[in-house]
Design brief:
Layout lengths: L2 H20 L5 H29 L6 E2 L2 E2 L4 H5 L12 H5 L7 H15 L16 H10 L10 H15 L1 H5 L8 H11 L4 E5 L6 H12 L4 H4 E7 L2 H13 L4 E5 L17 E6 L8 E2 H6 L15 E2 L3 H10 L1 E12 L8 H11 L3 E7 L11 E7 L9 E7 L4 E4 L2 E3 L2 H14 L3 H16 L2 H9 L2 H43 L3 H11 L4 H32 L11 E5 H6 L7 H4 L11 H32 L5
Parallel strand pairs: 3-4, 3-6, 4-5, 6-9, 10-12
Antiparallel strand pairs: 1-2, 7-8, 9-11, 10-11, 12-15, 13-14
Length: 638
C-alpha cells in the first residue's frame, strides 16, 4: 500500500470515527483509547487469520489417524502471533445479533486477549458499556475494513499516531512527547543495526523503535525475540499502553515500565546503566524544570550536569538525555536518537559536555533532518549516533550528513524518506565505515530491479552503472510517453466501441440479436481500459523514481569509493571539530552544494520556503519564551 492509499485510509477511518464521536457523550480522551484498542483487535484478528491459514496448510503439521491436529494457542506463540478464542475474534463481534449486549461482548473480547498475553494484562480498556450500543456497533463495523488486512504493523502504528493527533494534541505532544515517524525510526535502526543483545528505549512512546528493530532482525532470517531483549521506559501511562499493544501485535516480548518510576530523568528503572548493546530513543526536546539534585543523584552523567539555575532546576534537559544515552551503553554498544537541531551547537555547559563527548571518539554519525517529518510539529531535528566499537580507521572521525534537502513530500504537511532514500543514506554510512560490500548490495539491488526490462538491461550491461542509470531514466521516460499516447488511443477506441454498441442495441429487434451483438463487441468498458493503463503508467513512473534514486547514489560514489560531497556529507576529524568550537552541526562541515540546474515549479518552491520559514518562526518563538522564563528565574525579568 503506497503513501497516498495509506493517507486515504487514515482520512476515511478518521472521518467515520469522528462522525461517530460527535454523536456520543464521551470526550476525546475517553473515546481515544477504546477506539485504538478496537483498531488493535482488528489488526490482531487479521494476523490471527493469516497465521492460522499458515499453520493449517503446513504440510509438516502433525497428524493423527491421517487428520491434522487442531490448531492450538501454542502454535501461535511459535509464530509470534496472538491466539484469539472465538469470542475475541473480530468476525464474532461484527456478526453479533442485535439482541446481544455489544458493550459486554467487546469487554469480554479484550479480557480474553489479555488472558492470552500476560504483557497486556491491565492494558486493554474494558469500559465499552459506556458507549451507546448503536454507536459501538457502527464503530465495530467501521474497522471491519479489508484494507486493514493489507497493511503492515508499521502502518498500523502510523494510524495509531494519526488518530492520537486527531483525538487530542496534548496526548501526542504533552511535554514535548510525540510519536516518531517511521522513516526516522528506520534510519536509526539501519545505522545502529541491532542484531543481538539488550535494546533500551528510555522514552519509548508507542514502541516504534522496538517494532522496527524486530523487523530488521527478522529480515536477516533471525528471530527477534531470541536475539534481542527489549526494555522500555515511558512516563506517560497512556503511551505505555499503546506501546504494549503495538509490540504485542507484532509478536514481540518487551518489558515496559511506566509512570513515575519510569521518569528517565530520575530513574534507571531497569538497572541497565552500562549494560546495553543498543540504545534508541526520540526523547522530549527542550524540557525545563528538571530537579537538578534529584537528577544528579540518579547518576548516568559521565560528562556532568547541564546548566542549572537558581531554583536548582535544569533549564534545558537535552544534554541530560545525551549523557544517559552514552552512559547506558556497554563497552561495545551503539546508540541512535532524535534530538532538537539547536542541541548540536548549544553553548555554556552544553558545549563543555559536547567537547568531552567528542573527545571519547565515540561520536559516529550526525544527520540533519529537514522540516515536517513529524505529524504534530513542523520543526527540523537531528539524528545522533554513538559507537563505542568503531573501526580503527575512523576512531577519531565523525561522518556529518546534511539531509535537510533530501526527502520525499507526502503531502503539504508531511515529508519522509522513502525506502530507496533510506538505503542511499545507509550506503553512504557504509562507505564511511569501510563496508563497501553493503554499498554494492544497494547498487546491485537497483540493477536487478531493471534487469527484467530489455531496454534498461541492455544499457546496464553495456555501460558503466552511471551511464546505464542515466539511459534507463531516458528510456523509461520515453516508454511513459508512449504509454500515455497509447492509452489515449485505446480509451478513445473503447468510448467509440461503447457508443457503437449502444446504437446497435437500439436498432436490434430481438433479444437474440442483442445477445449476439454483446458477444461480438468484446471489451468496451472505458473505465477498465483506463484503469489498466493507469496501473501500467504508475508502474513506469515508480521505475523512473527508482532509476533516479539509483543515479543519485552512483553518480556520487561510483563503484564504491567514499568522497566528501559538498552540501551532503563530510568526514571530519576531532581536530576539525575542535576548530569549529566543538559544533556537531552537519551544515558547518559539509558546506553548500553546487547549484543544480533542474526544473522546479516556482510556486511549489515558494510554498516550501514559506513553510520552512513558518517552522523557523515557531522555533524562534519557543526559544525566546525559554530565554524569558530563564531570565525571570534569575531575577532579570519583571
Amino acid at each position: 500500500m503506497n503513501n497516498y492509499a495509506i493517507k486515504k485510509l487514515e482520512d476515511d477511518l478518521w472521518e467515520s470515527a469522528d462522525n461517530l464521536r460527535a454523536n456520543s457523550k464521551l470526550t476525546s480522551n475517553e473515546y481515544c483509547m477504546p477506539v485504538l484498542a478496537l483498531l488493535f483487535l482488528r489488526y490482531a484478528y487479521g494476523r490471527f487469520i493469516r497465521v492460522k491459514n499458515e499453520i493449517e496448510n503446513d504440510p509438516n503439521r502433525p497428524r493423527r489417524h491421517g487428520v491434522a491436529l487442531p490448531v492450538e494457542a501454542k502454535d501461535f506463540a511459535s509464530k509470534s502471533a496472538i491466539f484469539l478464542p472465538e469470542e475475541a475474534q473480530y468476525s464474532y463481534l461484527v456478526n453479533l445479533p442485535d439482541g446481544k449486549d455489544i458493550g459486554e461482548a467487546v469487554n469480554t473480547a479484550m479480557k480474553l486477549v489479555e488472558e492470552q498475553n500476560e504483557k497486556l494484562s491491565g492494558i486493554l480498556p474494558q469500559n465499552y458499556n459506556n458507549f451507546d450500543a448503536t454507536l459501538l456497533r457502527e464503530l465495530v463495523r467501521l474497522f471491519n475494513n479489508d484494507a486493514l488486512d493489507d497493511v503492515g504493523g508499521d502502518v498500523m502504528g502510523r494510524i495509531y499516531e494519526y488518530f492520537l493527533n486527531k483525538f487530542a494534541k496534548n496526548i501526542a505532544s504533552d511535554d514535548g512527547v510525540f510519536f516518531t515517524p517511521k522513516s526516522l525510526v528506520k534510519m536509526i535502526v539501519n545505522i545502529i543495526e541491532p542484531l543481538k543483545g539488550i535494546l533500551l528505549d528510555p522514552a519509548c512512546g508507542s514502541g516504534g523503535m522496538f517494532v522496527q528493530s524486530g523487523d530488521f532482525v527478522n529480515s536477516k532470517g533471525m528471530n527477534a525475540n531470541q536475539n534481542l531483549t527489549f526494555y522500555g521506559q515511558e512516563k506517560v501511562d497512556y503511551n505505555a499502553k499503546l506501546c504494549l499493544m503495538n509490540i504485542a501485535v507484532h509478536g514481540l516480548n518487551g518489558d515496559v515500565k511506566s509512570g513515575d518510576e519510569a521518569n528517565s530523568f530520575y530513574h534507571d528503572a531497569h538497572n541497565l546503566n552500562g549494560k546495553c548493546d543498543y540504545v534508541m530513543a526520540n526523547p522530549p526536546f527542550n524540557v525545563d524544570k528538571v530537579k537538578s539534585e534529584t537528577a544528579e543523584g540518579a547518576g548516568r552523567l559521565p560528562f556532568g550536569m547541564p546548566g542549572v539555575n537558581k531554583a536548582k532546576e535544569v533549564g534545558n534537559a537535552n544534554y541530560l538525555w545525551v549523557n544517559y544515552f552514552y552512559s547506558y551503553l556497554k563497552e561495545t554498544g551503539r546508540a541512535g536518537f532524535v534530538m532538537a537541531s539547536s542541541a548540536t551547537d548549544s553553548q555554556g555547559k552544553d558545549k563543555e559536555i559536547r567537547e568531552k563527548l567528542v573527545k571519547t571518539g565515540h561520536v559516529d554519525v550526525m544527520v540533519s533532518v529537514g522540516n515536517n517529518f513529524f505529524y504534530s510539529v513542523t520543526l527540523p531535528c537531528s539524528l545522533w549516533f554513538f559507537d563505542k566499537s568503531k573501526a580503527d580507521g575512523i576512531k577519531d572521525k565523525v561522518l556529518f550528513l546534511d539531509a535537510r534537502n533530501y526527502y520525499t513530500v507526502v503531502d503539504r504537511k508531511t515529508n519522509e524518506w522513502t525506502e530507496n532514500q533510506l538505503n542511499n543514506l545507509k550506503a553512504i554510512v557504509s562507505l564511511y565505515r569501510g563496508e563497501k560490500s553493503k554499498y554494492e548490495e544497494v547498487i546491485n539491488a537497483y540493477h536487478e530491479e531493471f534487469a527484467s526490462y530489455p531496454k534498461c538491461n541492455n544499457e546496464l550491461e553495456g555501460h558503466s552503472y552511471d551511464e546505464g542509470f542515466e539511459t534507463v531514466i531516458t528510456n523509461l521516460e520515453a516508454l511513459l510517453e508512449e504509454q500515455q499516447i497509447q492509452s489515449k488511443r485505446e480509451i478513445a477506441q473503447a468510448e467509440l466501441n461503447a457508443k457503437n454498441l449502444k446504437e446497435a442495441l437500439k436498432k436490434a429487434k430481438t433479444k437474440e440479436e442483442k445477445d449476439n451483438l454483446k458477444a461480438n463487441a468484446g471489451e468496451t468498458n472505458k473505465k477498465e481500459v483506463e484503469e489498466n493503463w493507469n496501473q501500467k503508467m504508475d508502474s513506469t513512473r515508480e521505475l523512473i523514481v527508482h532509476a533516479k534514486d539509483a543515479h543519485w547514489l552512483y553518480s556520487k560514489f561510483g563503484n564504491g569509493n567514499y568522497q566528501d560531497i559538498p552540501g551532503l556529507c563530510k568526514i571530519a576529524s576531532i581536530s576539525d571539530i575542535e576548530e569549529k568550537g566543538w559544533s556537531l552541526t552537519p551544515g558547518a562541515y559539509v558546506g553548500v552544494a553546487e547549484t543544480e540546474t533542474e526544473d522546479e515549479n516556482f510556486e511549489d518552491r515558494m510554498k516550501e520556503i514559506h513553510r520552512e520559514l513558518a517552522g523557523l518562526n515557531d522555533e524562534s518563538n519557543k526559544l525566546m519564551q525559554i530565554i524569558l522564563n530563564n531570565a525571570k528565574t534569575l531575577g532579570l525579568g519583571e
